[in-house]
């Protein structure tokens, strides 16, 4: 069954995959979404930190619940534009399954212990090509997710899905001392795939100019992510006692501009009435409906409607989202309690990486089996150089949940922890 029969907005260019795929009753985008949901890398997000360490309390968001919320918002943006944008019509619309798949995938490359984990792995991987959460997501869905048989291969994503999760298009090493917002140096084939091999125009130099050129669904996913974390981090901060009425009032007095008065007042009223969660949920609809579909001109616009069209977000909505994000950053993420836990997570990842590196990267090869069997087989591949083996170690650490990383750390370094009968 051809995807073109379902939706004329997309063409065979958009649905092309690196390997032929069996057709069934689903569209290619729905198959991509389904494969993401039924994958271990996605399930492990339930054990990875969003704001507070996973498992600390059962009502705080994890990377998994955050990703589900982003997917719902991204799908809603797609449905809203299909009903409101004059450029679209029945039979020629944005595919909500593609928007949802991009949102479900957007965080699967993130390591344990939140942003501290990402920063730590990037520091440790500096000699070997760096670490970036978005590049790791692309590596997972396109290259290295384990199949049930232990073989490494990607999810065989469509060109549109690869493009929808590819927030950045600058490669590591193209911009001197680039600390974030890059793809790994060996991911040029993905860029060639989404751009059909076309050379970049001279005005789109590596760095910000190139990274700002994103497909329609990538823009939708990114705004859904911004919407979800800025509002929901506030809610989790309230539940944890970091965001209080007095704290918000003091913060606003020192930091808020006159244009922020309405949004700050909305949050203050919600705190006074004790219904912050419902209030923030209502705000999601406002941010969804702030999106408009626009036509744009770029060097890929003739290849796909995903590049011919993009979105804009109303200035007041963007300002409100950034305001809530700043409040969460200042009152929650910069609190001593959260910073102390981030430091601990970074310390554990550092010791794990250094120990595994000494064992697997040093001359003479590994003497003990410290990795799981599938990673042992990978890292022993004879064609790998030191950087390639370091990348396998990075995959191993990045794929850990918070709890798994803590248990491995204790087993290696705590003399009173662990048993030979431990399974994990």
What can you tell me about this protein's structure?
The protein is mainly alpha-helical and 424 residues long. It has 3 domains: 3-211, Hypothetical protein af1432 (Orthogonal Bundle); 216-336, no CATH class; 339-413, no CATH class. It is built from 21 helices and 2 strands. It has helices at residues 3-6, 12-15, 28-37, 40-43, 63-84, 96-105, 114-124, 133-144, 159-165, 188-194, 208-211, 216-239, 245-255, 261-273, 276-288, 305-308, 315-333, 336-360, 373-379, 386-398, 402-413, and strands spanning 291-295, 309-313. A two-stranded antiparallel ribbon has the order 1-2. Mean pLDDT is 90; it is low at 145-150.
Give a brief outline of the structure.
The chain is an all-alpha fold and 424 residues long. The protein has helices at 3-6, 12-15, 28-37, 40-43, 63-84, 96-105, 114-124, 133-144, 159-165, 188-194, 208-211, 216-239, 245-255, 261-273, 276-288, 305-308, 315-333, 336-360, 373-379, 386-398, 402-413; strands at 291-295, 309-313. 45% of the residues are buried.
Order of helices and strands: HHHHHHHHHHHHHHHEHEHHHHH
Number of strands: 2
Helix content: 55-70%
Query: Which overall shape is indicated by the principal axes computed on the Cα atoms?
Result: globular
The low-pLDDT segments are 145-150
Named at the architecture level, the CATH assignment of the largest domain is Orthogonal Bundle
Name the strands of the widest sheet in spatial order. 1-2
How many distinct domains? 3
Write the layout of secondary structure elements.
Elements: H1 3-6, H2 12-15, H3 28-37, H4 40-43, H5 63-84, H6 96-105, H7 114-124, H8 133-144, H9 159-165, H10 188-194, H11 208-211, H12 216-239, H13 245-255, H14 261-273, H15 276-288, E1 291-295, H16 305-308, E2 309-313, H17 315-333, H18 336-360, H19 373-379, H20 386-398, H21 402-413
Antiparallel strand pairs: 1-2
Helix pairs in contact: 3-6, 5-6, 5-12, 6-9, 6-12, 7-18, 9-10, 9-12, 12-15, 12-17, 13-14, 14-15, 18-20, 18-21
């Amino acid at each position: 069954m051809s995807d073109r029969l379902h939706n004329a907005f997309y063409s065979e260019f958009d649905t092309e995959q690196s390997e032929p795929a069996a057709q069934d009753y689903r569209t290619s985008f729905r198959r991509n979404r389904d494969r993401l949901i039924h994958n271990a890398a996605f399930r492990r997000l339930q054990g990875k930190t969003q704001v507070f360490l996973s498992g600390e309390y059962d009502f705080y968001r994890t990377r998994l619940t955050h990703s589900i919320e982003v997917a719902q918002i991204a799908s809603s943006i797609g449905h809203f534009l299909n009903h409101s944008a004059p450029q679209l019509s029945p039979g020629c619309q944005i595919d909500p399954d593609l928007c949802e798949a991009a949102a479900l995938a957007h965080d699967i490359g993130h390591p344990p212990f939140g942003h501290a984990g990402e920063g730590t792995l990037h520091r440790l991987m500096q000699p070997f090509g760096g670490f970036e959460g978005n590049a790791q997501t692309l590596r997972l869905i396109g290259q290295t997710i384990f199949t049930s048989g232990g073989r490494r291969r990607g999810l065989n994503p469509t060109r549109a899905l690869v493009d929808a999760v590819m927030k950045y298009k600058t490669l590591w090493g193209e911009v001197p001392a680039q600390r974030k917002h890059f793809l790994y140096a060996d991911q040029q084939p993905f860029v060639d795939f989404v751009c059909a091999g076309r050379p970049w125009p001279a005005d789109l130099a590596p760095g910000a100019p190139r990274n700002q050129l994103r497909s329609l669904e990538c823009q939708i996913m990114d705004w859904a992510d911004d919407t979800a974390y800025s509002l929901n981090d506030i809610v989790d901060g309230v539940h944890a006692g970091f965001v209080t009425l007095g704290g918000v009032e003091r913060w606003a007095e020192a930091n808020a501009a006159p244009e922020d008065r309405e949004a700050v007042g909305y949050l203050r009223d919600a705190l006074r009435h004790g219904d912050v969660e419902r209030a923030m949920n209502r705000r999601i609809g406002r941010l969804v409906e702030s999106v408009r579909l626009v036509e744009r001109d770029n060097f890929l616009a003739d290849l796909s409607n995903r590049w011919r069209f993009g979105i804009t977000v109303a200035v007041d909505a963007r300002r409100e989202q950034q305001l809530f994000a700043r409040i969460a950053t200042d009152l929650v993420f910069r609190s001593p309690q959260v910073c102390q836990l981030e430091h601990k997570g970074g310390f554990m990842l550092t010791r794990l990486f250094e120990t595994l590196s000494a064992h697997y990267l040093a001359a003479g090869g590994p003497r003990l089996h410290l990795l799981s069997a599938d990673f042992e087989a990978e890292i022993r591949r004879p064609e790998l150089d030191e950087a390639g083996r370091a990348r396998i170690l990075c995959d191993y650490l990045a794929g850990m949940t918070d709890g798994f990383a803590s248990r491995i750390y204790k087993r290696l370094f705590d003399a009173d922890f662990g048993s030979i009968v431990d399974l994990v």
